[in-house]
Amino acid sequence: MSGIESRAPPFPIQGRIGNRSVTIECSEVLRRLPGRRRVLRGRLDGRDVAVKTFFGPGARHRFRREARGLWLLAGAGVPTPGLLGVGRCDEGWWIAVEWVYARPATRADGEAIVVLTAALHAAGVRHDDPHLGNFVVAGDRVFVLDGDAVAKVDVGRRASVASLALQLAALDADAATVDGSYRAYCAARGWRAAERERRRLHRSVARVQRRRVRRFLAKTLRPCSQFDVRREDGREVVYERAAMCRELERLLASPGAEVEAGARLKDGNTATVARVESGPRRYVVKRYNAKQGRARRSWVNGHRLCFRSIPTARPVALVTPRGRGPAYLVLEDLGGVPLDEHVARHGLDDATADAVAGLFEALSRDGLTHRDTKASNFIVGDGAVSLVDLDALRPARSRREIAGDRQRFLANWEPPVASQFAAAFARVSAGTAGDGPA
Fold first, then answer.
1. Pairing with 143, which of 110, 162, 260, 335 sits 20 to 30 Å away (CA)?
2. Residue partners of 47: CB distance under 8 A and separation at least 6
């Protein structure tokens, strides 16, 4: 591991800009990709900067590709941090850009991002990694970051629409958003909208979304910028880097003891679920007394739903033994109560019924079946409804399986409540059915 990869801030990077020796004082790690790069916050000549460092095999190639992409973005005339300097240090290469005081972009900024994408395409520039993390918003301007996946190409109309599909898939756009974004994009390019093209865009977005999910799921069990893996003491621990803290470390040191000491939520032969307090933090831990593969499947499924913005308890760590023994899945604690308890206490209002229907609609959109849609697997809290217990969730083999989820759910309820949920299913389905490709 190179020094520039392993050093903890604060530390300096020595380099040159032109004929001038410079020192960048790095104070914070913003992002890391093991063995390849780190993005840091620092100070150069008295100003805040963002520094991307490159190391490991192929570092020079990746450094040059990033620098070229940043020059292309600047040449396209779109808002992007100014390039301050590039250089080489003992362990690799670095690029420094202006620090933009901005907030992260969200899906609500989608239309502005689409208009920016249209400007890039009009300048003959394409961004092939347009996820939300590569955009920030300062005032009323959206800035595009990351030159690594930027290329100078002839972006004709068909190629432009294909690139727009990549952008909309990264924004997790639903059918109505795809339609609105297509209209905004055509207006920005001065094009007349075409119905056949609109339908093709819908199909392309769906195809890209499926591909993005497959690629993301492949990362959930190996080291990458979002996840890390430890193999120690006869076990494997997979965890989200952003979730790791002192309290989670303490829990992972002895998950079995923490489950025994926690508040028991479920106690069965195959699995035990407990709410665990570790300092000021609370987690829900599911111990798989048998069938370790179900723990791994639930970890992957939880991140599948999070990636697709389907409400669920976010998995933060997975502990599996090498050999025999229990596995542990650590989840964020949603709080809240099971749906059947909520309805028994407060009755069923349209907002809750529509939120439940929205979950089923999202699963149907992604071609997924839960296969255990009892009322206790829906948690109501903070004005939201979340789907939990994902051990059996998988891609549906037929539309009949998807319909079966709804039928099993409705069987939980007495006729008056079941009728309210059925009406919500129809209401939410009707609200989305007319927006996709005809």
1. 162
2. 98, 99
Bridge partners of residue 88, in order along the sequence: 93
Q: Cα(52)–Cα(31) distance, rounded to whole angstroms?
A: 9
Burial of 275 (0-12, 13-18, 19+ CB in 10 A): middle
DSSP state of 58: T
Token pair 């570790």 is at which residue?
278
How many angstroms separate the CA atoms of 64 and 80, rounded? 18
- As a whole number of angstroms, the distance between CA 150 and CA 357 comes to 40
How many CB atoms are closer than 10 A to CB 43?
Answer: 17
Cα–Cα distance, 89 to 23 (Å, whole number): 10
CATH number for position 389: 1.10.510.10
Domain boundary residue, one of 172, 191, 219: 219
Residue among 61, 21, 14 nearest 42 (CA): 14
Q: What is the pLDDT of residues 173-216, one digit of tens each?
A: 988 899 999 999 999 999 999 999 999 999 999 999 999 999 99
Name the domain count of the chain.
Answer: 4
Q: Distance of alpha carbon 33 from its chain centroid, rounded?
A: 16
382 lies in which domain range? Answer: 337-433
- Residue 123 CA to residue 169 CA, distance in Å, equals 22
pLDDT in tens, 55-114: 989 999 999 999 999 999 999 999 999 999 888 876 789 999 999 999 999 999 999 999
Residue 114 identity (one-letter amino acid): V
At 28, list the tokens: 């914070």
Q: Which two tokens stand for residue 55?
A: 């190391």
Sort 222 into a burial class: Cβ within 10 Å, 0-12 / 13-18 / 19+: exposed
- Within a domain: 128: yes
Query: What residue type is assigned to position 155 of the chain?
Result: V
pTM of structure: 0.81
82 burial level (CB within 10 Å; 0-12, 13-18, 19+): exposed
CATH value at residue 107: 1.10.510
> Is residue 82 included in any domain, yes or no?
yes
